[in-house]
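Task: encode each sequence below as structure tokens.

Item 1
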Amino acid sequence: MACSEACTAAGAPVVSDYEPKGTFTKAGSTDVYHSGSGALGVVIVPDIFGFGHKQVFQVADRFADAGFNVCAIDPFHGKPWTKDRFPPKPEHDFMGWLSREASWDKLKPQIDAAVAKLKEGGASKFGCIGFCWGVSIAMQAGQDGHTFSGVGGAHPALFGHDADFAEKVQCPVVLLPAQGDADTGPVQKVLDKRPYGSKCVYQRFDDQTHGFVAARGDWTKPEVAAAAGKAIGIMTDFLKHALGQH
């Protein structure tokens, strides 16, 4: 299995000159980017380009501006998938790399450490938001009904595990697919039956390429910046409801 077709079609990441407003620090042994403050904590899982592109910091700062206490984790420890290996070729063994470097077993301790960091900073309720592959990690984080009150993300790549993730998630979900991303129907079919089903949010952005809220987003283009801003607004509103602030 390789990158999703939508991921491959979206092309290489876009170089951004954004200047982060937050701080780079540690959560346990994991490098994190922290922005914002308050009781509403959010753990952000980047796409496969990790901290190699600055859009993730801009997203974190937007969440902070909306009132959240944010920790974005660096799941690849400074060695994300690189622009020169995109789109992945068979010899790059993309899925092998992803399973070795960022399996759920490896990511869970990082997410737990980020939650602990947010608790130190005053957060008491938590959401987890991912991008592309990171949505699959957020969905798995949502299987812990004691920690997270809302999970999901933009342009999800769930690698065919949509129904499986939906069966196990214990909290409301937000999914914002882009052009070419899989239909959210299998997830909705399961979650509509849950007590929290009415709190879930699904909205397609078929006029945007996969990755537009993350490393593939060229926010110098007004239409992309507007769509990314809309998506971020949907996710922050979702989390405020899911975390019980509305």
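Item 2
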Amino acid sequence: MENSKFGEKFTQIAVKLGNQIHLRTLRDAFATIMPLYILAGLAVLLNNTVFTWIFKGATLVSVQYWGTLITNATLNISGLLIAAMIGYHLAQNRRFDNPLAAVLVSVSSLIVMMPNTVSVTPDGAKKAVDVSSVLTFTNLGTGSMFAGIIVALLATELFIRVSSYKRLQVNLGENVPPAVGKSFNVLIPIIIVVSVFAVASALLNNIAGMNLINLITTAIQEPLRHIGTGLWGAIILYSLGNMLWLFGIHQSVIYSSILEPLLIINITQNIAAYNNGQAIPNIINVSQVASFGLIGGSGSTLCLLLATFLVGRNSVTRSVGKLAIAPGIFNINEPVIFGYPIVYNLSMAVPFILVPALGIFISYVATAIGWMSPCVVMVPWTTPIGLSAFLATAGDWRAVVVQLVVFVLGVLIYMPFVKINDNVLKAQAKSDADEAAVNA
């Protein structure tokens, strides 16, 4: 009874967390922008591997210009893009009737917080010079992603609140085009919100001699990212997410809302560093976690399926395995989660949480000691085993070997629990048969 009450209470808390509007907005925004990050990873992969195999000299430089343009249009404006998407999705989640206006406010508020003078190094020069009235990729790209998140959330919330006051709405009547009417309705709220952020930016510059991008990056983004995406922070958060599946709650409540945004920031930094020929800064990132902790889906259940085929004797679980193997290859494992099942199945709890954590740990150690390259390409989460590790590391075959080692260990860990689950199911079937006989 106590366990049931605990499970019910835990479920309620997790559901509330997953439905929290700002976390849900983060999840929606990053899901929307994901194709551009995958495109950026593809461009960097082609620029730095495939193209270098085919082209040389001036021809290589000319061909790589394509990848540079793609990087500029995706990775190098990622802070601006995430601000726009957060403004849109938060307005939608708040059921605000003009989400595009929220996009305008979010983007403008982020730009207004950026410095007016920046230090840049001209091509061929050794010393940096100060330049005014320019926006740099440094401030628009991965370095401003966390600032974009915070500014967009604050600006959109303030904009929606101010827009709710009827006295601040300019109503032109019913005889004007709808787009014009909507624009004038939010005219004064937009002026107020952007002006508030401009005042804050001016005060930071004149009093402290700094800007919000640097302040947020230094004081908030980097400490939080290092804690959340350190080895143990990532393992704990990811394991908590997988634990939610045991209660029938999608692990995205924790993973997509809390951990994944930080992991995406890490992979974007890796992509940028790899593209520029610099040292790769982050071992833990979204591609590393997905490739080594998501083999077959949450809980690395492709390992469970193979273990079931090897030692499983229950006809039901083997039938589920046959149905689930095809989608499982592409990391889609709902048939396993609900059909095997994993949900409320204590027999599967330990390996379901342990195997992904082990995959993250082994791949981290292998990268740290130089047995494989770090992940520098963002691959789709549906990429099959083997191919995912190869692409994520820009073509390092050693990563495939490490991934296969993780897979084999995962199978071995799942095997005794498959046998335990078979015995539990057999005992339950016998109990049901005895009860039916008594009631007959």
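Check on item 2: The chain has two domains: 74-228, 241-439. The two ends are 29 Å apart (CA to CA).
End of task.
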